[in-house]
Amino acid sequence: MHNFANRLKELREKNRLTQSALASLLEFDQSTISYNELGKKEPSIESLIKLSDFFCVSLDYLVGRTDLDVQFKRFVLEELNQLIKKIDEN
Questions:
Q1: Is residue 1 within 8 Å of 64, Cβ to Cβ?
Q2: What is the pLDDT of residue 17?
Q3: 20 to 30 A Cα–Cα from 18, which one of 1, 28, 54, 81?
Q4: Which domain holds residue 33?
Q5: CATH number of the domain within which 31 lies
Q6: What is the pLDDT at residue 72?
Q7: What's a Pfam family in this record (predicted)?
Q8: How many separate domains does the chain show?
Q9: How far is CA 51 from CA 10, 21, 84, in A?
Q10: Angle at the Cα of 50 (from 69 to 1), degrees rounded to 5?
C-alpha cells in the first residue's frame, strides 16, 4: 500500500503538475511539497485537507489507508442506489 509521500507524488504527476506549480496553487512553500514527497516532513491536518480537496480524493486515499479513491466510491454508491430503485420499482 502507498504511503502519503508516494501518493502525493503520484497524484501530482498524474495531474501533470510540478512541485512548484502545486505549491503555488495551494499557497504552500515549494519546499513543503518537496519535503512531503521525500517523507522528510509530515503534513498538518489542514494541509492534508487542502490536498485531498484539491485532488478530489478522500483523506484515507491520500494517506495510503485505502486504494479506493473517493470518485470510485461515489460511482459504486450511485450504481447501488440505481439498483435499489429498480428493485423497489418491481
A1: yes
A2: 96
A3: 1
A4: 4-89
A5: 1.10.260.40
A6: 64
A7: HTH_3
A8: 1
A9: 13, 13, 34
A10: 35
- The identity of residue 84, as a single letter, is I
Q: Which amino acid is at 82?
A: Q
Residue type, 46: E
**Residue 44, C-alpha cell as written in the block:** 498538518
Which residue type occupies 61? Y
Burial of 45 (0-12, 13-18, 19+ CB in 10 A): exposed
- pLDDT at residue 9, rounded to an integer: 96
pLDDT at 83: 83
Helix axes 4-14, 45-55, angle to 10 degrees: 30
Distances (CA, A) of 4 to 11, 20, 42, 68: 10, 18, 9, 14
